[in-house]
Amino acid sequence: MTGLSPDSSLRRAQILEGAGKLFVAHGFEGAKLSMIASEAGAVVGSLTNFYGDKARLAAAVHADALESLIGLLEEQLRRNGPDVHGAIKAVILAYFAWATANPNRQAVFGILDPYAAPDGTGQATTLQARIEQVLAAWAGPIIRAKLMTPLTPAQLFAIIMAPAIGSARSTAPVRPSDPDVSGEWPTLLTSLAVFGIEQAGRKSVRPSKR
Fold it and tell me: In sequence order, what are the beta bridge partners of 47?
């Protein structure tokens, strides 16, 4: 099986970009295939040839946004390894930088999560589920080395990434384009995450009542 030609790869990229923009602007129901084709400089036949139908196109837009972010987070965690504080700050900074550069990709997650393609186990590959997997893979060796409090993937997500994602999506008081995003705000979120992990550790080792 051969790979896509350069022209096909470019056409797919144009379709995904145009579709993402219109899904964000009009929602899944409001973004018609004819509108997406026009935005991408394509014809409806190209969309159906590549993706089959609108639901599969939405899944492809979601997957494209997700993998562009996940690769970035994985790289930051690899670079920082067992340096928990450094790794947490790096992924928070990386998320804000990605959200600033990719506002439409950030926005598609809430809109297109219902259309996310399932993984090998049949579970939908939502933003939270994929980040939980990434954080768990990074934290596993650190936890086994007893350098970090044992936490579930859901706890890791809630403590480390949920506040950053929530603030980037909010209208106030913090936006990814704010000057604080590269300085004080990520530092504060990092400190809160590290504190949250420490607090979780204290709760897990509370002496039992006799």
Answer: none
196 within some domain: yes
Q: Is residue 184 part of a domain?
A: yes
d(CA 31, CA 34): 8
What's the whole-model pTM score? 0.82
Q: Are residues 78 and 180 in the same domain?
A: yes
Tell me 157's DSSP state.
Answer: I
Task: Give 73-117 pLDDT, tens digit per residue.
Answer: 999 999 999 999 999 999 999 999 999 899 889 999 889 988 887
Per-residue pLDDT tens over the stretch 129-139:
999 999 999 99
- Angle, CA of 175, 179 and 180, to the nearest 5°: 75
Cα→Cα distances 148→90, 133, 177, 195, Å: 17, 17, 32, 12
Flag whether 209 is in a domain.
no
Q: Structure tokens of 191?
A: 């400190």
**Same domain for 110 and 172?**
yes
